[in-house]
Each structure stands twice: as structure tokens, then as C-alpha cells.
Amino acid sequence: MASENQALQLQIEQQKLHLVDLRKQGAAQNLLEEAKKALGDLQRALAQARSGAASKDTTKKRERLMLKTAKGTRDYGPAEMYCRQYIERIVKDCFTSYGGSCLDTPVFERQDILQGKYGEDAKLIFDLMDQGGEQLALRYDHTVPLARYLAMVGANNGHSKLWQVGKVYRRDNPVMSKGRMREFSQADFDISGTWDPMIPDAELLSLLCTILTKLDVGDFTVKLPWVEVKKEMIDEKGLDPTIADKIGEYVKHKGGPELLERLNADAVLAANGRAKDGLVEMGILFTLLDTYKVLDKISFDLSLARGLDYYTGIIYEAVVEASAPPGFVNTNILPTANDAGAVSAPTKVKKAKPAVGSEEEEEIDESQVGVGSIAAGGRYDGLVGMFNAAAAAEGKKTQGLPCVGVSIGLDRVFAIVWPKWVKKGMRSKETMVYVMSMGDGLLKERIQLVQELREAGIKTDFLAKNKPKHQAQFAASEKDEVPFAVIVAPEELESGFVRVKEQKWQFVDGEKVKVKTDASEKGTQ
């Protein structure tokens, strides 16, 4: 059995090397899929061979068990989750205030749905093992699943504003402390349908600025990439490259309306019809952004580039001063990412390289990496159309559907908000009242009072013991910083009263301590 396992292990290592070579050579997707399938078959064979001896190795396996999360994932404790829930609550409230409806799509999709949509980033997709004939993969983002959904509902969909909040997965090299992970949460808002020029784009930029302002992430800038605008003008609109270069000279400077005035005053640009059309759209966008009162947050940026294949028009990315690496000041040249789920590292410190054939990447010095972009988005008018043929085969009446969307990296936002949350000493629970007893346990009476308060909408808790000690009850309430203690005692109960004690905390020498309140315990009926 041992020799058989060793032979299979050797074949697996050889197949891994073969797969690495194919990737380096830029082999066709079908060859990569065949190599992955062969590797999976060998791994399953090895697993089956080992299963026969599993019972003998149980004790050894328990000794080798490491209690840790998978690479690129992490747990969030109660205090951290309370902060994350606060972030999500603000985001969702803003989504609904802008007329959005909630959508939920599966965490995994068919591989053919995801293939061909992400360009070079496709290598980061998590493929799953063959599941009964279906080749599946974990979703890379919310955008492609949304496009698949819109194609499936066919002619039944028109203008829509849809939002999703959930986890996505990328086989990236993680920088955990900065929110760059393999499993992370994104919040997406997408507008579909044919609208008048630039209105949906301005609506989304306004939404993004509103969310970042309410989250108090600090000074932020939303960058619009001139490089992509120039490429679109040359490739899609047929603009003479010399004209595009001339416009590019202007947008090397940060600007808004004053930049537009300079462009319109240029005789060379004014003589080119296509350039004038582009300036008209730019003027519409500026006017709308000014009406939304967010124009001061927008900046053209020459460095911004996107790696996803489905973008077709305007794209943008939000960066925050607090997201820069150590010592970084100028946000206008902050290293940016392919989107809110992946960050560019300005400095990498190389450590020992992994063994040949290993799929692990070099470690990154987290102290030198900024959070990067915290939100990104753009227009993807052709993505839904990629699914038209499949939808038509199902009898759905479909056509190309213009779409524009924004994605907010919630883990990135958390990495910025959490230190502020800790510094302010924010609570990890919403409990407002802690019911206690004096003397005999009074368990029944405590439970009755707890339920009355809960039914009245007051978040209430108590110590789940028959006869809890007085000090233990106060310790439990102080641990959760509950602002009010309701004390039940036999004498007061006979008169229909309980005592209410207010509890307060404040920072003293950097530590949060309980302070005495001005008022003493008060009786209430």
C-alpha cells in the first residue's frame, strides 16, 4: 500500500509541474483544463488509496491537526462583527435609499459562465472538483453572476437597480491586515437598461461618495482613468491618436469644469467632431456630478488601469488617504488595483522562494502595503450580451443590455474603520438593559421582566444561573458595557418596584474604565 501511495504521490508532483509549465507557456484554456482534470483524478485516487488505512492513522492525524483557518481566510470575533455589521448596515441603507432592490446569487457558478470574462485575472478563479459532471468554480465577483441572471430573465427585465452583498473568492496572494484576502465580502450596486447619457454613471458616483462619507473613511478621491478614455476614443470612436494625445496633455493635471473649459477652447480639438462628442459627454458628467455635489471628489488619473475584460466605457476607482502604505502622502498617485478585491503592493520583500512546482507565491511584507482601492466600478454594456446565445436557446428574448455598476470592498473598508472603532472604544453588543437579582435568585421573576422588556423592543440580557452572585452579575454587565442595570429585590417586588442603575464608561490614560454616575440607584414601577 505504501509503495502504491508513493507512486501516486510522485505522479501528482509531476502533474503539478506540468500544469505550472503550461501556465508559464500561456497554454490554451482547454489544455489547462485537461491538465487540471488529470491532476484531480490522481488526487482522488490517492485519497481513495489512503482511506483504507485511515482508521490506523487516526491517532497520528489528530496529533498533526493544526487549528488554523485556510490561507487567505480569517475569523471575525463578536466585536469585529459588530463593526462589520455597522458598515454593512450603512451600505445597505444607502443602496435602498437610491432605489435599489436586493438580489442573491449562488456562491459557485458553472465554470463556463465565468470563463472569458476576467482577462488575465482568470487565473485567480477558484475551480472546484468535478461535481457529477458539472465543472464548477467559486464566484470571482458579483458582476458576472448578475449578468447571467439578467440574461436568464430575458425580456422580463427592463430598467433595474439591483444590489448584492456577499462573499467572493480569489486565489490571490493575501495581505490579511490590509483586507486583501482569498475570501472576502463585496457590496455591489448595478444599474441596467437604456438611460440618457451619463445619468446612471453620475448616480453611481454620487452613491459611492455618499457611502464613503457616511462611513467616515477619511479623505477620499474617486479616480476616472484617462488612459481608458483615450483608448476608447481611438479604438471605438476612431479618434486620431494625435488628437487623443493632445487631450491627454490636459488631463495630466487634476481637474473638473476648469479642465473642460480649457479643452473646449483648444482649436485643434474643436475642429475634430469625435473629440467634440467626447467633450460633450464629459460636460454632461461634470454638470451632473456638480448637481449631485460630489464633483470635488472626482479626479482624472493617468495611472489607473483595469484588468477585467468586461468593462466597455467609463471606469473608476476610489482610494482613501488612510489606505496608502506607510509614509505615503499623495493620494493622486496611490498604487491602484484591478478592483476593490485586489490591491497592488508598492513594495515587496522577497523571502525564501517556494519549491519548484509549488503553487504558493512569495510572501509580502504587510507593513509596506497599503489597503489600496476600497471601491471600483464602471460600465459593462456588452457583458449580458455574452450570454445571449445561451438564453436564446432557452427560448428567452434577449438583447445587449447596457449596465453600469460599483463594487465596494467591505474588508478594505473594515481595515480602515476598525482601528478608529477600537480607538473610540465602541461596544460589541447592543444590549441596553441587564436584569439582576438581590438575595434569593428570583430566576422566574428575572425571566419575566427580561421578556417584558424584550417584547417592548428593549435589548435585554441576564445571567443564566439560578442563584447568581451579585458581583458576578455586575461583572457580566460591565464586560458588555450595558448602560442600565435593573435590580430585582424581594422587598421592591412586593411593592411593584425595581431599581435602575445607570452605568457609564470613559477613557482614562488610554484605558476604558467604569465611572460613577451623578445619580444614585432609582426605583421605578
TrEMBL record:
E.C. numbers: 6.1.1.21
Matches recorded under Pfam families: HGTP_anticodon, tRNA-synt_His
PROSITE patterns with a match to the protein in the record: AA_TRNA_LIGASE_II (PS50862)
The entry's keywords: ATP-binding, Coiled coil, Nucleotide-binding, Protein biosynthesis
Enzyme class, spelled out: ligase
Domain Aminoacyl-transfer RNA synthetases class-II family profile: 63-417
Family: Belongs to the class-II aminoacyl-tRNA synthetase family.
Protein name: histidine--tRNA ligase
Protein source organism: Sphagnurus paluster
